[in-house]
Amino acid sequence: MIYEIFMPALSSTMTEGKITSWVKSPGDKVKKGETVVIVESDKADMDVESFYEGYLGVIITPAGESAPVGSAIAYVAETKEEIAEAKQKAAGQASSNGSTAPQKNEEPPAKLVSSPTAASVASIPDVVVSAPRKSAPAPSGRQIVSPRAKRIAKDNGIDLAKIAGTGPNGRVTAADVEAFLQPSAQPVAAAASIPVTAPAPVAKVAAPELGKAQALTTFQKAVVNNMNQSLSVPLFRVGYTITTDALDALYKQVKTKGVTMTALLAKAVAVTLQKHPLINASYSDRGIEYKSNINVAVAVAMDDGGLITPVLKNADQTDLYSLSRDWKGLVDRARAKQLQPDEYNSGTFTISNLGMFGVDRFDAILPPGTGAILAIGGSRPQVVATKDGAIKVASQMQVNLTADHRVIYGAHAAQFLQDLAKLIETNPQSLTL
Length: 433
Known about the structure:
By secondary structure, the protein is of the alpha+beta class.
């Protein structure tokens, strides 16, 4: 019996997937539920497991290439004797498509990073996408290791028992093994919290070849698709100037406890959204969708291009210190492409902060499925006039709200920004309660 492994749909917007690496090689034994291939989805790398037991007969789509969702990317033979039949079937398919025979899969470089993520794929029965359960920790004494981490450790003769995992439920990831190989590097788990007022270190990316077009990554295509969707939405923008002296003073008090400016701003926005549920709502064919949770998404630029929005869930109900720890963990996993889908697509309101780069003001594009996004500029000293006619210096930042006019009107946006400014200017200490 010959079985097909299909390219899974790892998200609702995914039309094609790119093979990051093959964990199994042609001829290798494949067990049911065992990871066979790692696929790059819109925002992360996913472990794809086989639904069948047998032998990997032939790889149709090699590492580094893409295939449409639902197309066959490999054949699994039930017995060794049927491997030749699988190769013939693949060759016949290639001939009918007018393409060349499948290429032999090459060993992926050890520097590639994989991750255990994603939801199950109901529409494609031949694969299972692994998703570690957050609610059920691993049994005591059992170490969970990703397939890529196992391979890197084996190639370098590393005892995995010596490595502490930083993935979900303590899972050892490829990034953990690579960090172990470089003892001079600071472990991710012990890294200090980086305030949003300073840009995070950016990994060196190969310079583009001038004069030639560079194909978009799956990640970048997803961003393009989202931006195109926003073109059909009637948008309007409202700006506001907020004095940040009180917020800056609070930040100086709490930053030594690991609190970041991102967490402070997210908390302030979330608390304000409690009074303005319409700003947290979105438009749908059924009407205005009022959300039961306040999940604040924060835009993060990826080192290799593209944009992702890790989500601080229930930000209004989470204390400031936990929110900061959650944010650091989200950013670490986002950089390593280890976010679960609900950690980047469950936002109900979005913040985009370019103030850390010295930007004064800008307008943000509304993400699909939300009603508003807040663009935050940098805070800087300004000469301002007081109500009694005096002159003083105060730190101020410009914020611009981009909103869906089908849901939110100008007065709603203005009232939200007014209440946000009042909280930040007069009572930021309440954010620590």
